[in-house]
Amino acid sequence: MFTKRVFLFAIVLLLLAPINVDAQCAMCRAVLESESSGKAAEGINNGIVYLMAVPYILVAGLFYFIYRKMRA
């Protein structure tokens, strides 16, 4: 029982700990920093948001489907 609590606490602590990373490649970063208007950076950021949103929407739909099946 105690080891399960310690394990759960360790997982929660790792998930809540902030991690600073630079995940851009050098070429993308150089292009985005050299541009004065910022249109390319805005496009890259919007693309990242769209790519990130799709899996969350799919998982939410899956959980909703499971929830509806379990209630019926």
Reconstruct the topology from this structure.
Blueprint: H1 2-16, H2 26-34, H3 39-71
Task: Describe the protein in words.
By secondary structure, the protein is mainly α. It has one domain. 79% of the residues lie in helices and 0% in strands. The protein is built from three helices and no strands. It has helices at residues 2-16, 26-34, 39-71. It is flat. Keywords: Membrane, Signal, Transmembrane, Transmembrane helix. Residues 1-23 form the signal peptide. The chain crosses the membrane at residues 47-67.
Q: How many domains?
A: 1
Mean pLDDT: 82
Largest sheet: none
- Rg, alpha carbons: 20 Å
What is the gist of this entry?
Helices cover 79% and strands 0% of the residues.
Q: Which terms would index this structure?
A:
single chain; 72 residues; mainly alpha; 79% helix; transmembrane helix; transmembrane
